Amino acid sequence: MRRALIVGVAAVAMALAVSACGGSSTSKLSQAAQREADLYSIDQIERTWHRAASRHDLNLMMSLWAPKATFTLGGTTVEGKTAIRDIFSKAGPFQPQNHWVSDTPAYKIRTTVNGDKGTLYFQCHYVDVKTGKIMAVVGADQDVKKIDGKWLITNFAGSSPTLSP
């Protein structure tokens, strides 16, 4: 009887120890999975950006921006989606006469995440469909934030990177 009690207590102790360890590794696994999911979602901003620019789709482009986002290019900064939309409406990739495909070399993409904030850098290479010539190159350095479950751009700083392989 005493032996059965000791074995029973040992079995319960072992079960508690295993479940405690399982919870810890499950938590770490969940955190790792969430991080990967967030990095993937942030990366989708770059894909959507290029889809919007290649299709002249201003509404799709604006779906990437937080309401009070800032946009800096050429020393000028604007704030808010209305002002950002105005800039894109005048930009070369969105002009109806320009038939450009927007692309980013994969090795030029950098993404970070820390909780509900992150960063995203990529270059936009705008290529004329008819001639195959690169018409413009812009470096897009962005702060992003998860707002209401969606990753959005909160701050954009554009630059003119030099083209290199």
Structural notes for this entry:
The chain has 165 residues and is of the alpha+beta class. The chain has three helices and seven strands, in the order H-H-E-E-H-E-E-E-E-E. Strands 1, 2, 3, 4, 5, 6 and 7 form a seven-stranded mixed beta sheet that branches. Strand 1 and strand 2 form a beta hairpin. It starts with a helix and ends in a 6-residue tail after the last strand.
The tally of structural domains comes to 1
Q: What is the end-to-end distance?
A: 77 Å
The biggest sheet amounts to:
7 strands, mixed
If you average the pLDDT, what whole number results?
Answer: 85
Q: What's the CATH architecture name? A: Roll
Low-confidence stretches: 1-22
State the shape: globular
Extended strand count = 7
Can you give the helix content as a percent range? 40-55%
- What is the count of DSSP helices, taking H or I runs of 4+ residues? 3
Structural class determined from secondary elements? alpha+beta
Order of H and E elements:
HHEEHEEEEE
What Rg, in angstroms, do the CA atoms define?
24 Å
Compact overview of the structure:
Helix content is 42%, strand content 35%.
Write out key terms for the chains shown.
3 helices; Nuclear Transport Factor 2, Chain: A; 42% helix; 165 residues; disordered N terminus
What is the secondary structure topology, with strand pairs?
Blueprint: H1 2-55, H2 58-62, E1 65-73, E2 76-79, H3 81-90, E3 100-103, E4 110-114, E5 117-128, E6 134-147, E7 150-159
Parallel strand pairs: 1-7
Antiparallel strand pairs: 1-2, 3-5, 4-5, 5-6, 6-7
